[in-house]
Amino acid sequence: MFNPQNTFKILCLTGSNLGYKENDRICQNDSFALFEEALQIAEERKVDFILHCGNFFYSEPSKETQKKALQIIRKVCFGERKVGFSGFKMEKEGHDQNQSLNFHDPNFQIKIPIFVIHGNFEINESSPLDIFSEAKYINYFGQLSDLDSSIQPIKLLKGSTKLNLFGLGFHPILDQQSTNTSRNNSIFNISQGDSQAFNLFAIHSYSNFNQNILDPKSNFGSSQNLVLFGSESGFLNNNSNSGNLVTLKPSLPVELPDRGLSDWEENRCMILEISDNKFKIESIKFENFRKFFYNSIPSMEKNELYNLVKRECQYIKRHIPQKTRSFIFPPKFLELPLARIDITLKGNSGDLIRINENDSFFSELIANPDSAFNFIQHSFNFQDESSVQNREQNLEEIFQKEIRSFGNSTNMPSFFDQFFTMNLSQKKSKNSNSKKKRKSESKKKNPKLKKSKTKSSKKKKKDDF
């Protein structure tokens, strides 16, 4: 059990992407809802500070986005509660600058400081992180001015626990695997930190992160080291432990379209507690996020696929929203889920189907009707026709499977299972009955048809002999 007087309690997250889809009618407030929830968790759990590991904003945030971010920070992180630790930022060797941390400024009442490094969306001049830091809303750190310089730590103290906080924001050169990282000195200036302190590193990368930066021999000292790795894609697959170096990754709260499917996971933030040279982690699931489901449809001709999708859209719109809209999501959940269905098209002629023509059928079912269907066109002809049999059943099974899993994760009643199973069986029964009906009608209209066929077949056999 950690002694609270000696324990840093830190909320860690990455990729808030404030302003993502800010012009979208449905998703314009998603990023702000998640960010505010993260800050509310920090307030409820009485954390000492928030550590944001990159992409605080989405690319080129508007003034309206910046305004909303300021309002949320001021609402949750400003107040009369005193910060329970001390600290200073090492700007230059042997020089401390207390006023560089916002909670030291007597003109501001900061109860939950936010420490932020920049991500790959925030390396251009349009990023407002500098302005937010100058205005004392955040503590912006982790900038590497050139490849020969070193990152200085922020030294924090709470009771007997000493913490060296290092940050390395996104750097386009260091981010590449092929980068030659042979240097005369470490990227992180460990010597400026206390040798008895716990070293905490916040690093942001986009994709091909240079693993040499995580080499304990070249860039880290002998103290206990913990690395928080923030990224939009190409995550470290698992938490790893190499000697005195432990790497962890917070998950993304906002679901971006270019994420790999393997990276889609439950949205969580992380509570990190550090006491002396020990730490423990608690994962907390977000509630204000959109559920995501994915599947793929086998290849088929474009015309029949278009008609099939259109028919299913009409069918779903006609039945589902009217009966389930009031109880699909618990009160804190965002109402509509995100969907992605990959569809492979045969042939190489003509343009891909424009699913936008069907947006109206999905607009009350999913949050991304304009991007739910991803069409993949191949320039060769498929030889295996077995994969395209029972096409109507394929699409219905996809919706049945995904809505079943979606329902399980949100305690949704079994209405969907019964509904789609009943619908599928009804269609099969209907098709079977219609065939029988057609046969019986043809027999009634032509009672001699069967006899004539029999005679003609016998005649053929005689002729053959």
From TrEMBL:
> Which residue ranges have biased composition labelled Basic residues?
427-465
Q: Which residue intervals make up region (Disordered)? A: 426-465
Database matches in SUPFAM superfamilies: Metallo-dependent phosphatases
Gene Ontology cellular-component annotations: Mre11 complex; site of double-strand break
Q: Which domain of life is it from?
A: Eukaryota
A GO BP entry is: mitochondrial double-strand break repair via homologous recombination
Q: Name one GO molecular function term.
A: single-stranded DNA endodeoxyribonuclease activity
In its UniProt entry, what is this protein called?
A: Double-strand break repair protein mre11
